[in-house]
Amino acid sequence: MSRHFYGAMFAGLLSLTLFSATSRADDKCTIATKGDNVVVQACKKGGIKAAKAEMKKLQKAAKDKGMKAECDDCHKDESAGNWTLNKDAEDKFKKMVDLTK
Which pick of 9, 19, 45, 101 has the fewest CB atoms within 10 Å? Predict the structure, then answer.
């Protein structure tokens, strides 16, 4: 009986360890890594989740100033987690930052 318990406990800990390791690796920023803006700073501190939250704030501030800004305007497929940038993404990002200063 105790052997089954310890086996199950070991399997659970192993699964938890593997899950933790992969979730941290997936949260690493690959795009917002250069420069000195709020998104890069958030990325360094909190990974993709923090960078996304900062981008949402920036997006809202830009909309409040009249600029139409949607995630898919700059990223390939935000809903699928594909953050690859479109060709005009960097220019749009600079406009958003300048507009919200």
Answer: 101
Q: Give the chain's length.
A: 101
pLDDT score of 16 more than 60: no
Residue at 24: amino acid letter? R
The Cα–Cα gap between 48 and 64 comes to 24
* Amino acid present at 88: D
Q: Give me the helices (H) in the chain, please.
A: 2-26, 38-64, 71-74, 89-99
pLDDT at position 67 is: 94
- pLDDT confidence of residue 94: 93
> Computed over its alpha carbons, how large is the radius of gyration of the chain?
19
Phi, psi (rounded to 5 degrees) for 39: -70, -45
Q: CA 74 to CA 24: how far, in whole Å? A: 25
**φ, ψ at 100 (rounded to 5°):** -95, 5
